[in-house]
Amino acid sequence: MSVRAVRAWMTPLNVLRAVTYLLGVTFTLYTIYYAYSQFFTQQIRYTNLFLGLGIALFYLHTVLEGQREEGATEGSIRRRIEPLVAVGLAGLAIWSVAYVELHFDRLFYDAPVVGYTTNDLLVGLVLIVLAVDTTRRAFGNTIAAVTLTAVVYAHSLVGPNMPGVFRHTGMSWEQIARDGAIGLTGVYHETLMGIGATWVAIFIMFAGIAKAYGLMDFVLDAGREIGSSLRTGIVQVAVIASMVMGSITGSAAANTATTGSFTIPMLRDQGIRDDFAAAIEAVASAGGQMLPPVMGVAAFLMADIIGVPYVDVIRAGLIPAALFYLSVGVGVHLAVLKFGWTTERTDKFEPRVLLQGLHFAVPLAVLLYTLIVLRYSPLSAGMYTIFTIVGTVALRNLYVDGPSLDTLLATARRTVTGLYRGGVEMAPLVGVLAAMGIIIELLTQTGLAQRVSTLIVGLGGGSLLLVLVLAMLASILFGLGMPTPAAYILVVILVAPGVEAMGIPELTTHMFVFYFAMLSAITPPVAISVAVGSRIAGTSFTRACLQALRIGAPGFAIPFAFVANDGLIQWSFPETVVAFPLVLAGTVALIVATVGYDGRRSLGSLRRTLYGVASFGAMFGVVVHPALQIGAGVAVVVALAVSNSSTPSRFRVSARN
């Protein structure tokens, strides 16, 4: 390349692209390197550099996305200044973590005893500001406002003047800077950022690499092929695709935006009404957060907080996830049949489509083997899975395309692109994990977390059901507008101790509050997942929310069901074997009642009420007597069998209803 060509290429925007790309690849490679050398590297030092790289990458990528959306740099003064501000903040992030790295030994060993300098405290405040700002840019104002509220609430000017349970002695700005960041707590929170920078990051980055290799395209192609052979068309495939991708992303809104941009138009093309299409995608995307083995990255956080093996969390999440997705699958199936949205013609399924993605099964097998059989940590398992997918795809390309330099170069380009995408997809989570660390540290220091739990128990008046309802409401409230991992951490700190105080096992309690934090994504008035889906579908947010609540209704009952039937979480024989089919029958009956269709005919108010009563009996009858639960479950199965064996009704409800 000539000097003139180099000069022509080196525009500010091109240089920014190159720097961002290099930073994204470095971010992923740094994480993989730590996974390889973790026994020789102090985690807190690794976390510090991870924080700086992630925040800087987020800012730079945001600038590039803004330029791509605008198409040019022309525009208002704000549009011209905003990229410069973001680049400056990226540099500030690198400078801040470099300061911590240069003074690490003093900050880690000496400063907690002899005190922090003014420069230390200023850097701490800068890190807090960066965490809040990146969270605002990535996830909106809600969680950023919560973080700022926690900072203001902790200050000595506010805390002592608060009423009742919210009153505390207050903290100075120096204490906030220390506990919020520079004391290597807060944004460096051992659980949040510690797990986020290792277990969470390695799986998010694996997902980015897998997408670059065509995993998303394979899922959608396979979905279209399967959908063409089913009477209900693409609808079940949309549910499964959203479920799988949602388990990895950790954000219901991001999953709805990503998979929904493909699935919602396909659902509409099949004739499914706009509000139902948005609701199906929103519910499936939100529910993906509960699907093992990743569970929207919350499984890693849960295992570390409770102090149990990661495999135990996976096992505890299997049956509840199966209950939720089976009920959602039944719900959308009944809705398609009820409104006559079935496909006119079905084609024979072509299995060759699945063979095109057979190589993706190899890294999945390695992941499950290393996690479940070898009991490796998620970080190590994720590392070996990344190595496996890179090697498998390279061999597959050499076999399919033939051994040549072009094949090697094409594979190398996609690998580097995957490394970049993995870093870019992890970067937004860095800020929100740092912000949540600040919230948890300050709320713990002020004592609010302990007092809220005591308040919930007090308001419950000794009634387990009332305490669970209060915990449900608090979990949904604290989770509104937040990504699932952040919502889970917040409700665990504030709500879970109150439920545990009623004698509920710790793992069951965590699963309970986690489910409702996850369901906040489809719960009005925020319902962030539904909001994204309705925008893609071009339909009413209110109508989409109503349909989402219908389809996702069993999700609000399942957490209560596994509290009543502890065998669903704590596996045992014969409790688990008996409880699972009975509770499944209950969830199916509940979806029949909410959709108002049993597979053959639309139901009137009386039949819907009877199905609703039977569903509660099958899910919660064990609290009164096991015979009641068994009787209700059998009644549901018999009623559905009799109804679907009778002559089908020719009546179909108009799709406009």
From TrEMBL:
Source organism superkingdom = Archaea
The membrane-spanning stretches of this chain are 12-34, 46-64, 84-102, 114-132, 139-158, 192-213, 234-254, 290-311, 323-341, 353-374, 381-399, 419-443, 455-480, 486-505, 512-532, 578-597, 609-642
User: What sequence ranges are listed for the domain TRAP C4-dicarboxylate transport system permease DctM subunit?
Assistant: 135-569
Q: Which UniProt keywords apply?
A: Membrane, Transmembrane, Transmembrane helix
The UniProt entry, under PANTHER family, shows:
BLL3936 PROTEIN (PTHR43849:SF2)
Could you tell me what this protein is called?
A: TRAP transporter permease
Q: What is the scientific name of the source organism? A: Halalkalicoccus tibetensis
